[in-house]
Amino acid sequence: MPDEFKDLFIIYSFGLTLIFFLSFFTYYVSNKFSLTISKKNSYYIFFTSFLFYIISILYISFGKINALHHYYDFAAHLEMLWRNSQGLGLTMLSAETYHGSINWFAAHFTPIIYFTYIPIFKIFPSPYIIPLSESFFILSSLIPLWLICKKYLNTNLSRLIICSFLFYPTIFYTNLYGIAYIELCIPLFLWLFYFFDEKKNSLFILTFILCLLIREEVSLVTCFFGIYMLIKKRYLIGLFVIFVSIIYFYTALSIVIPFFGSENFYEKDHISTILFEEWGDTYLEVILNILLNPIDAFIKMISIPKIGNFVMILAPLLFIPLTNILAFFIAIPNLAMVFLSPAITHSSYMLYYLSPTIPIIFYATVSGITILKKLRYVNINSLVNAILVSSITATIFFGATPISIAFWNKGYKVGNFYTTNFHRSAYVEEERDVIAKKMVKLIPENAVVSAEQHFLPLLFKKKKIKVFPDEDKNIEYVLIDILNPKKTGGMDDNYLSFRLDPEFYYQKYLKNNNWTIVAEDKGVTLLKKNDL
């Protein structure tokens, strides 16, 4: 086993063992003594969990912004939303080279933002509105989840399932990371399940359309939802969902996204296909080769980190989603995409890529419990109690909340990260952060600025931002953090070289007669081009 995994193996082995031990102990005690949660206590547990989630996510999210612990992704979405509010459309000047166009839709087709983040940001154009609105959308999932639970469980147990949702680690991590729009799958998919169960076809179709608008790859998941509907003998609407999903997927990736790209980009496939280029040159080739080579595909998905992430998706719910394997089947497209990707971040339970899977496994959990009801030796009350304990324990050992070990112990790592840190110190504004904020005020709004990644969210209102040390002949100001030990490069193949030799890139400006230092303090340095 590689050394980098040894410490993680110990942490995860111990944590998972304790999760299952405490869950089993909870089930055993609850079953033996016929312990049930009263209505009063279920309300108390729910409101405590709800307040804990809100206070935790807002405290940490706001702290993360203040302490400059966001990076390019957060800045890019701020830039896009700001430019759109100024009548410049959904454009990112900072990502033109990477996406092949300044238009966001050249990368991902996410029209759902016109009904969600865009109107909110236009009214409140602030970085702080991002975690506020994202938290609102994610927490809105509690409504359909509650309605689903009430169909299968009594109200007291339904509240405990909702609390399990609030303590589910991936939910909090997704919320904390920042917007990617695919997180909107969580509430909308739960509504989709609810309207399907209730046979409210008109509302189902409306929600289905909204799901398609989230992001292009979501249509693959809805296609499998349609197959699930066929299995459930909802033939007409099931065929409709499958047909529309396939047409939408093809249209989005082959027509709409290339339309927003540059002329050269139009001849290329979607940016994500580079991750699957070993499987083929076109979408159809990739899909067919994966289906025709299931053993090879399976081998690609069974590395130690990927197996660990798969376990972490299911462990907080005690693997109950697998009891309703037909419902779990709906998540296959999302799981296949993230686990076949060579980028380990895509399959991480600590990121947003698994957002389409989360509502599916919660539905599979609730509906799976009803399957277990038929088994005489299973006590459903005790099982739900155990699920809640499992979720809370998972958050303690593997989460990022104020009750998590990683929040209090800086040496406790739940992953091999370079820049990411979930210790409470990461959310405290330091003197260097205050200095950087003051220097940003010295930069004109119409300037083209190159800055290290953690400074970029401060610059989203500027004319154009570039990730240092990416080059651009139009750069007028440069903001660097010389003494910061963590270096995150740009997108021009300098990511690793900047980490290894940052001084080489710094000296390009510091020892260049064409540039003058405007301000310098604690290693935070602002330079200005001389011919301005």
Which structural traits does this protein have?
532 residues; mainly alpha; 25 helices; 5 strands
Describe this structure in words.
The structure is a single chain. The chain has a five-stranded mixed sheet, with helices on both faces. The mean pLDDT is about 90. Helix 3 packs across helix 5 (about 115-125) and helix 11 (about 200-210) runs parallel beside helix 13. With about 525 residues, it is mainly alpha-helical. It folds into two domains: about 10-70 and about 110-410, no CATH class; about 430-530. It contains 25 helices and five strands. The longest helix has 30 residues, at about 5-30. About 55% of the residues lie in helices and about 5% in strands.
